[in-house]
Design the sequence.
């Protein structure tokens, strides 16, 4: 007659799969993919980008001697910095703002603004 209890090693195997699986799952949760960001139609400078700049950047990047010589106060300035390639990479690489990397959704919207032609 076959015993109804599983052999101990099967149990151990099952437990270790759970233990390995948990950190993988929690890792996934920390970095939501842009696909899970709330959809936004048109990203323009005035309806979105200017607000992000105001909140995270212009405290240093404005006035008569902006940090790094980069001013981000107006549409023309932000567009010029974005076209140089440094604007987005400074954020996606987590260098700017110095206080900590922007979340993935904010980054994906800023990227969309570039990809859709820097709408004012
Ligand atoms: C607390 C002050 C501070 C804030 C806030 C800040 N920056 Fe900067 N930023 C600097 C300083 C200082 C430099 C020059 C030295 C360096 O490159 O780290 C700089 C340099 C830059 C440069 C040029 C060099 C590079 O790293 O590519 C860009 C582009 C830039 N910042 C973009 C931004 C953007 C976009 C934001 C907002 C998301 C931001 N910064 C927020 C202080 C700041």
Sequence:
């Amino acid at each position: 007659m076959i015993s109804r209890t599983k052999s101990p090693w099967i149990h151990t195997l099952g437990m270790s799969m759970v233990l390995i699986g948990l950190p993988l799952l929690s890792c996934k949760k920390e970095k939501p993919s842009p696909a899970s960001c709330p959809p936004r139609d048109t990203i323009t400078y005035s309806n979105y980008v200017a607000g992000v700049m105001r909140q995270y950047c212009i405290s240093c990047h404005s006035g008569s001697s902006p940090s790094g010589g980069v001013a981000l106060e107006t549409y023309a300035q932000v567009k010029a910095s974005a076209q140089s390639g440094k604007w987005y990479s400074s954020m996606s690489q987590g260098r700017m703002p110095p206080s900590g990397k922007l979340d993935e959704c904010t980054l994906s919207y800023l990227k969309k603004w570039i990809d859709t032609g820097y709408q004012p």
User: Anything to note?
Assistant: Residues 56-57, 59-61, 67-68, 70, 72, 81, 86-87, 90-91, 95-98 surround heme C (CB under 6 Å). The radius of gyration is 23 Å. Helices lie at 8-30, 45-56, 75-83, 86-92, 104-115.
